[in-house]
């Protein structure tokens, strides 16, 4: 397993990861390659989007790090990082999330961020436990959501 910065060529593989998560959770969300390009790879606020690639060259997960700008959809304070993590259920609990966060944390430090926000569904126990394990703590709880922050 290795990580690298996502490029346009990864959009299809990243969309496949989203489809596998949808199949697993039953929760619909956009997942085609053009959505992935706009939302993760080519977003103007992106600091780094990192993909995890298995030994056969398949993308098994990705993690995006963006800079919070005024009016962002999560109401994250301006200047913080915003993280999002998407890993195929085929490889859950094998350390992929941990590997991705070591790359993201490094990118955040290089970008001079002091804090990273994670916006998690309150009904997503694995997401909550994952971010706890990565050193995030809850700082606010809008309805149905838990927002956690990591101090760098
Ligand atoms: C949450 C998610 C990112 C975790 O990724 P992962 O690759 O399985 O995580 P890792 O294997 O690196 O786990 C790191 C640590 O997180 C914690 N953790 C992760 N998943 C967990 C779970 N289901 N239950 C309990 N602890 C968990 C553990 O402490 C784990 O360390 P350990 O396995 O040594 O005990 C992954 O399940 C996922 O992408 N889910 C779908 C999308 C999602 O929920 N995204 C995040 C919230 S928006």
From TrEMBL:
Cited Gene3D superfamilies: 3.40.630.30
One Pfam family matching this protein: Acetyltransf_1
Record InterPro entries: Acyl_CoA_acyltransferase, Bact_Acetyltransf, GNAT_dom
A GO term for molecular function: acyltransferase activity, transferring groups other than amino-acyl groups
Presence of the UniProt keyword RNA-binding in the record: no
PROSITE patterns referenced in this protein's UniProt entry, alphabetically: GNAT (PS51186)
Keywords of the record: Acyltransferase, Transferase
Spans traversing the lipid bilayer: none
The N-acetyltransferase domain, residue ranges: 1-152
Record protein name field: GNAT family N-acetyltransferase
Species the sequence originates in: Sphingomonas populi
Organism placement in taxonomy: Bacteria, Pseudomonadati, Pseudomonadota, Alphaproteobacteria, Sphingomonadales
């Amino acid at each position: 397993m290795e990580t690298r910065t996502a490029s346009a060529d990864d959009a299809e593989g990243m969309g496949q990861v989203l489809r596998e998560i949808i199949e697993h959770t039953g929760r619909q969300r956009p997942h085609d390659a053009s959505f992935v390009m706009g939302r993760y790879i080519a977003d103007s606020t992106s600091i780094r989007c990192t993909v995890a690639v298995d030994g056969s060259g398949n993308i098994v997960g990705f993690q995006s790090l963006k800079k919070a700008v005024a009016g962002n959809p999560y109401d994250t304070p301006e200047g913080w990082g915003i993280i999002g993590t998407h890993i195929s259920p085929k490889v859950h609990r094998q350390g992929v999330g941990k590997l991705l966060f070591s790359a993201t944390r490094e990118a955040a430090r290089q970008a001079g961020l002091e804090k990273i926000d994670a916006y998690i569904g309150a009904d997503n126990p694995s997401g909550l436990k994952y971010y706890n394990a990565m050193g995030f703590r809850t700082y606010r709880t809008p309805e149905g959501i838990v927002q956690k922050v990591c101090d760098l």
